[in-house]
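Exercise 3.2. Students should predict the tertiary structure of the chain below and write it as C-alpha cells, then compare their answer with the key that follows.

Predict this chain's 3D structure.
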Amino acid sequence: MHTRRHAVTVFMLVLWIGGAIAAAAPTDEECMVCHGDPGAAMSTATGKVVSLYLDQAVYGKSKHAEIGCTSCHNDIDELPHPEKLAPVDCSVCHAEAEEYAQSLHGRALASGDKDIGGCMDCHGKHDIRGVDDPLSHTNKHNLPQTCGKCHSDSALVQRHMVSVVQPSQAYLKSTHANAIREGNLDAAVCSDCHGAHNILPAHMPNSPVFRLNIADTCGHCHVKETEEFKQSIHGKALLAGIPDAPTCTDCHGEHDIEGPDTKDSAVSARLVSKETCPRCHDDVRTMTKYGVETMHQASYMDSYHGMASDAGSVAVASCSSCHGTHNILPHDDPNSTVFQANLPHTCGQCHEDAGPNFAAGPVHIMPTDPGQKALGIVRVIYLWLIAVTLGGMILHNSLLLCRHMLTKFFEEWKGRRTYKRFSKGQVIGHLILSISFTVLGISGFALRYPEQWWSRMLFFGDTGLEIRANVHRIAAVVFIGITLLNLFYSLFTRYGRKEMYATVLGFKDLKDLLLNLGFALGLTRKRPKYDRYTYSEKLEYWGLWWGTWIMIITGLCMWYVDVFLTYLPKVVLDIAALIHWYEAWLAIGTILIWHMYYMIIDPESYPMNWSWITGKITEHDFKEHHPLEFERVAGQESSADEEDPERTAEEVDPITPALK
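Answer key:
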C-alpha cells in the first residue's frame, strides 16, 4: 500500500513539473499546427516533409492525451523544434520500464538491436490505450496479433534464432484463444505465460516458461491439475532434475493447446495413446536410461481397446483412462489407479461387473516379456506350429503344382503336333531378362528398405549394404546388355523387324479389347480372333520398352551422380530418383498383375504356359489363342506338304515363312 501511494505521489510530482515546463514549452495546439494537418506537406521553418501526421481523434482518446506532447517530448522548448528529437523515456513515469530493461527485449534494445523499438513495439506511439480498452494493442483480444508482428515475421525469427515459429497463428487455434473470443477474459494470453514487461528466455531459471517453472505458470489458472501433477511420478521426476521428465507442454503443447474433446488435440482420446504417450514411452533409448519398459503402447494397440480406438472410437479406454491424466503414479504405488488392488475399481468405470479377476494377470499382454512365461510358452509353441503347418502346406502344394506342370507339359507335347512359337534366341533372352529383372527388383527394394527382415536375411544384415548395391548394379548391367541386344536384333535382323512389326498396335486391337470386355461382361458370346500377338501382349511389349528406358536413364543418373551434377542441377537428379522409384513399383506391379495372370492364373494357361521355356506351342493352343495366324500358317503348310509329303510334324516351323 505504501509503495503504491509513493508511486502515485511521484507520478503527480512529475505531472506538476511537466505542467510547469509546459507553461513555457509549446502547447498541444501549437504542435498540431503541423502534426495535425494531413495536408501540410512541409515544415515552413525547415522546408522538409513533416515526418508524422497525428490524428487528433486518435490521440485524444489515448492515455497520454491529458498530459500534453512535451511531457513525453521534453526536449522541445521552442518551435520549430530540431528535426531529430531524443528518444522518449517512458521510465520517467512508468516503473515497469525497469523490468523491461532487464528483459530479453530490453537487453536487445540496449545492445543496439535495430529490430527492437522499445515500449512502442507493443503499446503503440500516440494511440496508447489502457489494457482494458478493446482498441488497445495490449488488450487480451489483440495481444496475439501484437506479439505476432515480430514473432510471426519469419525473417526476424530466423535472424534472432527464435525456436518457435508462428506462435501467434498456433495460439489463435487454441482453446485459450477460443475462450477469449467467447468473452472469458480470464483465459490465458501471451503475457499470462511469458510475462508482460519482464519477458525472459526459456533457458533462464527465473523465466516463467523455464522447464521447471511451467507447471507453476499453468497453475495460476489450473490449480487442481497442477497440484495433482506435482504429486505424480512425472512431477516428482521433473523436480528431481530428470531432464526427460515431461511437463505440461510436453503433453498439451505450447501455443496450440486444445481441449481433450477436440479431434486433433494431443490429449484427445484418439491421439493420447497413439502419439502423445508413446512419444516418450516408446523411445527405447530414453526409457532404457531410466529402466522403464517399452512396447506397452504396441500391446495396447493389439488389444481390443487399441483396435477400437484406431477404428475411431472415443468411448474406449485410452492410456489416461487407466493411468490417470495428471495424477499418474507408478503401478506399485497403493494410490495408483493401476495398483493391482485398485484395478477392479479402475476397470469398473467402464465395466460395471469388474471383479477381482480383472486384476489377476498382466494388463499389457507382451508374450516376449520374461515375466509373462505362460504367454511366452504359448507364443513359442504356436510359432513352431505355424511354421511347420504352413510350411508343410506350402511344400505339399508346391509338389502337387510341380506335378501338374510336368503333367501338362508331357500331355501337351508328347506325341502331339507342335509349332515353333519363339526362336531359341528369344527364349534365352527372355530368361536372362526375367532373372535380371527379378534380381533388380529384390535388390532395389532391399536398398530402399534395409531394415526389413527379408532384406537383412538376404543380404547379411547390417553388413550387406555394399553387397546389395553391387548386386543391383551387376543386374543392371546385364539388364542393359540384354536390352541393347534386343534392340539391335529388332532393328537389324529380318526376323526381328518382322516380330516388331507384329507387335504394332492397330484399330483391330481396340476392337478386340472392346469385344473381349463385352464377352467378359456377358454382353456377347463372340470372342476376338487374335493374330500372332494379342492386344494384351502388344501393350505389355511396348510398356516394357517404355519402362526399360526410363529405368536405365534414371538409374544411370543415380549411378554416375558426380558426372550428372557437373552438367545439370540437383533438382533434376531428385526428379530422376523419384521417377526411378515409382517406375519400379509400376513395372513390378505390371508383371505381377498383368503378365503373371496370362502366364499362370488364366485358366487356359494354368498351371503354367510352357512356351517361354520350350519356345513351342501346341496345335490346340495355336488354334485357340491365335486363330488368324494359325489359319494363315495352315494354308502355307498345306502347300509345303504337297511339295514334300515326307515332312514330319516335328519339322514344322511355320512362323518364319509366315512372317515373310
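Discussion points: The chain has a mean pLDDT of 86. The chain is about 55% helix and 0% strand.
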